[in-house]
Amino acid sequence: MDDPESRVTEEVRQTADAIGRMEIRGAATIADAAARALRDQAEASAAETPDALRAELRAAARVLHDTRPTAVSLPNALRYVLLNADGTTAEDVRAAVATSVAEFRDRLENAQSDLGRVGANRLRDGDTVMTHCHSTDVLACVEAAVEQGKELSAIVKETRPRMQGHITARELDEMGVDVTLIVDSAARRYLNDVNHVLVGADSIAADGSVINKIGTSGLAVNARDRGTPIVCAAQTIKLHPDTLTGHTVDIEMRDESEVIDDETAADIGDPTVLNPAFDVTPPRYVDAIVTERGQYPPESIVTLMRELFGEATVEPWVE
């Protein structure tokens, strides 16, 4: 019998590669791409039985899942599609996958606009916000506030080493927000000029810890010391259901070439280079987590997580 992984389509592998190289970035965008890739696998498959098709889908999901271990929206998207891949024939399964992907994408589209309206309620006319990295959920909150007629300013951290803050700066400028760009190490200096720190999340643990771009934790500690509220904007697809059972969130380590090139490394003695993509901000440093379902204190996020996922977790891509 053929290995199901050998039948994973080139389109799925290209999507996985784009996610791994961060050509596809942002939790919602990653989740959308993963769901569509599973739909494409189902449509392209020549499997004649439901079991064979589901085996191919699980193999495709494993290829996708292994690309970004910290971005929990990716396994949540895979889980949603695979758990709905029901049917007594292969055609039934294909139809079920198409339906679940359409439902999931619709949920994604509505979730961000709903979250934006919730988050905008925290922002007042004339406020200045500080951002870190690039979060479409954070931008949704700001955009909704601007659409309500509020004038806002932003201090944007450049967010090394990939400089995602530049993307944030450009998109805020396009919204009409007055933008000041700063180097990461200058954040504490300007926190007294800020009404809110707004950050996104790649995942949120059951205890309310926020896993986000490296540097978020230090920013949160400084914000608490300065008395500046820090708010995390995150759709519920970023809740990490595995942490309900005590699972520890994996922190992705990225290539040293993002930090330093070979020639420069040789010039300074070829040091060991560590490039963690994320860090963990304890819940005591976060004032609120804004989702499409409302605002929650970090310690209450477990209630929402249990409501959405139950006590047990399932990884349907595992054989």
Structure, explained:
The chain has 319 residues and is an alpha/beta fold. The chain folds into two domains: 4-114, translation initiation factor eif-2b, domain 1 (Four Helix Bundle (Hemerythrin (Met), subunit A), Up-down Bundle), CATH 1.20.120.420; 117-309, Translation initiation factor eif-2b, domain 2 (Rossmann fold, 3-Layer(aba) Sandwich). It has helices spanning 10-20, 27-44, 50-65, 73-82, 90-120, 136-147, 165-175, 187-190, 216-226, 262-267, 301-309; strands spanning 128-131, 153-157, 178-182, 196-199, 203-204, 210-213, 230-233, 278-281, 288-291, 294-296. The strands form two sheets. Strands 3-2-1-4-7-9-10 form a seven-stranded mixed beta sheet. Helix 6 (136-147) runs parallel beside helix 7 (165-175). The protein is globular and about 65 Å long. GO terms for molecular function: ribose 1,5-bisphosphate isomerase activity; S-methyl-5-thioribose-1-phosphate isomerase activity. The active site is at 133 (proton acceptor), 202 (proton donor).
Short overview:
Helices cover 44% and strands 12% of the residues. It has 319 residues and is an alpha/beta fold.
User: Gap between N and C termini, in Å?
Assistant: 16 Å
Global geometry: globular
The count of helical stretches stands at 11
Helicity level: 40-55%
Q: Within the CATH hierarchy, at the fold level, what is the topology of the largest domain?
A: Rossmann fold
What CATH architecture of the largest domain would you give? Answer: 3-Layer(aba) Sandwich
Specify the CATH class of the largest domain: Alpha Beta
If strands are numbered along the chain, what order do they take across the biggest sheet? 3-2-1-4-7-9-10
Provide the gyration radius in Å. 21 Å
Summed up, the domain count is 2
